[in-house]
Amino acid sequence: MIWKGRIASYRPMPCALPNSNSRTCQPSHPTAPTVVLAYETLSETHWNVPGIEPAFVPEFFVDVTRHMPKKKAALECYASQINHAPSRSIEACMALARFRGSQNGCDYAEAFKVVRIVV
Predict the structure, then answer these.
(1) Strand 109-117 to strand 60-63: parallel, antiparallel, or no bridges (unpaired)?
(2) Which runs of E-coded beta strand occur in 10-68?
(3) Cβ contacts of 83 within 8 Å, gap of 6 or more
(4) pTM of the full predicted structure?
(5) How far apart are the first and last CA of the chain?
(6) How far apart are CA 93 and CA 75, in angstroms?
(7) DSSP-derived 3-state class of residue 95
(8) What is the distance between the alpha carbons of residues 32 and 16, in angstroms, rounded to a whole number?
(9) Which residues pair with 87 in a beta bridge?
């Protein structure tokens, strides 16, 4: 979380995109986002073949521990859509957040690729 203090002090306008070729948010005017992050999404197939698909190697993490009860409740609203996809189940989402948290010294975290940070 090296950037946490710096980013907060500049009050950036963030933009979060799915991590699939996330170069779509180009700065073209003064109100363009100053922070562009690509968020991690769970695969339905786990067809992540090195060399064919880009690997998600996050550089930016946000501690979301205090938000996890609300996230779980929100995911439960989509139970009919995710219950038949074990890799995108509520348990899988919670496990991924738990894993990302374990990498960063907190209970739960969300992981992002940095597309652009302008300070």
Answers:
(1) antiparallel
(2) 14-18, 35-39, 60-63
(3) 89
(4) 0.71
(5) 16
(6) 9
(7) helix
(8) 13
(9) none
- Within 10 angstroms of residue 26's Cβ, the number of other Cβ atoms is 10
Per DSSP bridges, beta strands 60-63 and 35-39 are unpaired
Domains contained in the chain, CATH given: 4-117 (3.40.50.10320)
Write the single-letter amino acid at 80: S
Query: What DSSP string runs through 54-73?
Result: ------EEEE-GGGHHHHHH
Tell me which amino acid residue 46 is. H
Q: 82 in helix, strand or coil?
A: helix
Nearest residue to 1 via CA among 85, 58, 55:
58
**Cβ-contact 108, 65 below 8 angstroms:** yes
Task: Identify residue 40 by its one-letter amino acid code.
Answer: E
Q: Which of 53, 51, 66, 50 is closest to 109 using CA atoms?
A: 66
pLDDT in tens, 19-57: 555 455 566 666 677 788 888 888 766 666 667 767 788
β-strand 35-39 against 109-117: which pairing, if any? antiparallel
